[in-house]
Design goal:
The chain has three domains: 33 residues, no CATH class; 198 residues, v583 domain like (v583 fold), CATH 3.90.1700.10; 215 residues, Enterococcus faecalis V583 fold (Alpha-Beta Complex). The protein is built from 16 helices and 18 strands. A hairpin with a 7-residue loop joins strand 17 and strand 18.
C-alpha cells in the first residue's frame, strides 16, 4: 500500500529495508545510524535505569534550560582585558578551544600567539616571540576558563579591549575581544606590522570612544538584538550583517553625544562599523557564553554548555561535569573554497565561535539565514534540514530566538548528551576555513559535524562507567 505523500519513511537498517520500500514506489530517506558502543550503552542504562538518578537528571536539565532560555545578555562596557577578565594576569595569553601547548598549537594559532606578544611589546620580532613561547616564558590558558570567547585563534592579551556582557538574570559576565574585520588579521595568524598597527588603533582610538558610548547607553540588550537579527536573515555565526547594522544604529546617538576630544575618532569608528559586517559576531559569542555559563555546574545535568576548537582539538563542556573538557581531534571542514585554495590548504576547524551553536544560533538557526548557505557551499534546503535535525538532539526551542521560515518556531537549544548518544547524531557547525599556515587568513567557509566521541566520553563520566 502506498503511503500518503507527506509521510517519508526513515531507514536506518540494512539496505534490504529501503529496497523493499522502493519496490513499492515509496521513497525512503536513509540515515547513517549504528547502535551506541558498549560503554555508551552501559552509561545509558546507568542513567535511565535508576529512577532516583533519572529524576535528578531531569530536574537538573530543567533548571539548566530555564537559566539558558531566560538569560538576558546586556552589553555594559568595553575595557582592557587585564582590568576585567578574571584570572588574566602577568604574561598570560588566552586562546580559543581546550588547553594546548606551543608544541601542539596549529599554524594559525602559533601566528596569533606570536602576534599578541608583538602587540604587547613583550617581543620585538616574530622569531623572538616564538622563542619566548616555545621556552615556556608565556602562560597559555583557554578563553573559556576565564569567562571569555574569541573567534578563530581567539587570542586575547592583557592590553586588548574586550566587551563586557552581563547576564542580567544570572548575574555572571562574559567577555570577547573586538573583531578586527576581514583580510590579514591576528585571529587567522597574521602578525605583520599592519596587523599590529590595526590592533593598536582598535585599542587606542576605537575602544576608548566606543567604551564611553556603551557606558553612557546604560546597557545594550543583545538578546533582543539577536532576536531581531534572526528575523532579518542572520544566523549570528557566519552572517551578522543585520545585527551589526542594528548595533550601529543603537550606539550611534551615544557616540555623537560624546566629549569633543573624542569627535576626531568618530569618522574612522563609523567607517569601521560600516565595513565590518562580522563586527557583531564577537557580541553574539559573548551573549551566548553569558547565557550558557549561567547554566554551568548543575548537578546531574546532561546539557552541553560549551563547544570549542583550537585547531588541533575540538572539545565540549557539560553542565553536570564541572570544568572538565572532553576532546577529540579537530575535524576537517566541508565547504566552499576561495579561488586558488582547496582542502589540502585548510587547517582543521578552529575557534570558540561554536558557542553560538551551543546557544541555539549558528548552524542551529541556519533555516533563518538562506543567504549564507551559498557562501558555505550549500542551499537553503540544506540549511533548513540542518536546523530540523538539531531539534532531535536538543531539549527545548528558544522562546526568544525564533525563525520566520519555520512559522516562528524557536531555535533548537540545549544539546543533550542522552539524545546525542541515543540518536548517534552530533551537532553541526557552520564555520570559516583558515589556511593551515599563519597569516594567509580565511580561504573559505563551510559546515562541519562535531565528532561524537566527546559526547560519549562526557556521558560515561556522568554515569560513572
Amino acid at each position: 500500500m502506498k503511503l500518503p505523500d507527506p509521510v517519508q519513511p526513515i531507514v536506518a537498517g540494512p539496505d534490504d529495508f529501503s529496497t523493499a520500500l522502493e519496490a513499492q514506489g515509496v521513497a525512503a530517506r536513509r540515515i547513517a545510524w549504528q547502535p551506541p558502543p558498549k560503554g555508551v550503552s552501559r552509561a545509558l542504562s546507568a542513567l535511565l535505569g535508576d529512577a532516583d538518578r533519572y529524576q535528578a537528571m531531569q530536574a537538573g536539565n530543567q533548571e539548566a534550560m530555564r537559566r539558558i532560555t531566560e538569560a538576558r545578555a546586556l552589553l555594559v562596557d568595553l575595557r582592557a582585558a587585564r582590568d576585567v577578565v578574571p584570572g588574566l594576569e602577568g604574561k598570560m595569553l588566552l586562546h580559543a578551544g581546550p588547553p594546548l601547548s606551543w608544541e601542539t598549537a596549529c599554524g594559525p594559532m602559533r601566528g596569533a600567539l606570536a602576534g599578541a606578544l608583538l602587540f604587547e611589546g613583550w617581543a620585538r620580532s616574530p622569531a623572538e616571540a616564538e622563542s619566548l613561547l616555545s621556552g615556556g616564558a608565556i602562560r597559555l590558558s583557554p578563553c573559556h576558563e576565564h569567562g571569555t570567547v574569541g573567534p578563530m585563534a581567539g587570542v586575547v592579551s592583557p592590553s586588548m579591549p574586550v566587551f563586557v556582557v552581563e547576564n542580567d538574570t544570572g548575574g555572571n559576565r562574559a567577555y570577547s575581544n573586538l573583531n578586527e574585520g576581514l583580510g590579514k588579521v591576528l585571529r587567522y595568524g597574521a602578525n605583520d606590522a599592519g596587523v599590529i598597527a590595526r590592533l593598536q588603533w582598535l585599542a587606542q582610538e576605537v575602544a576608548p570612544v566606543l567604551g564611553v558610548a556603551i557606558r553612557r547607553s546604560g546597557g545594550i540588550d543583545l538578546t533582543n538584538m539577536i532576536a531581531q537579527a534572526l528575523h532579518m536573515g542572520d544566523e549570528l555565526h557566519n552572517r551578522n550583517k543585520a545585527a551589526t547594522a542594528l548595533f550601529s544604529r543603537a550606539i550611534a546617538p551615544f557616540l555623537v553625544e560624546g566629549e569633543a576630544r573624542n569627535q576626531r575618532s568618530l569618522p574612522g569608528l563609523f567607517r569601521y562599523l560600516a565595513e565590518t559586517d562580522v563586527f557583531f559576531l564577537n557580541l553574539s559569542m559573548a551573549a551566548s557564553k553569558a547565557a550558557l555559563d549561567g547554566a554551568q555546574g548543575i548537578e546531574g545535568s546532561t546539557v552541553v554548555t560549551a563547544m570549542a576548537r583550537n585547531g588541533t582539538e575540538i572539545a565540549i563542556r557539560v553542565s553536570g561535569a564541572g570544568d572538565a573538557w572532553f576532546t577529540a581531534p579537530s575535524p576537517a571542514i566541508e565547504g566552499l573554497y576561495f579561488p586558488g585554495y582547496g582542502p589540502e590548504d585548510a587547517n582543521p576547524d578552529l575557534g570558540d565561535s561554536a558557542i553560538t551553536e551551543t546557544g541555539g544560533l549558528g548552524a542551529f538557526a541556519l533555516a533563518a539565514a538562506p543567504a549564507i548557505t551559498d557562501f558555505i557551499g550549500g542551499t537553503p534546503e540544506m540549511g533548513r534540514a540542518i536546523t530540523e535535525e538539531m531539534y532531535g538532539i536538543t531539549l527545548a526551542e528558544h522562546p526568544r530566538y525564533t525563525i520566520p521560515a519555520l512559522d516562528f518556531r524557536g531555535t533548537p537549544v540545549g544539546i543533550d548528551l542522552l539524545r546525542v548518544a541515543q540518536s548517534r547524531v552530533s551537532p553541526m557547525l557552520d564555520t570559516g576555513i583558515a589556511h593551515k599556515e599563519p597569516g594567509i587568513g580565511q580561504i573559505g567557509a563551510g559546515i562541519v559535524r562535531v565528532p561524537i566521541e566527546p559526547f560519549d566520553a562526557a556521558l560515561r563520566r556522568l554515569a560513572g562507567v
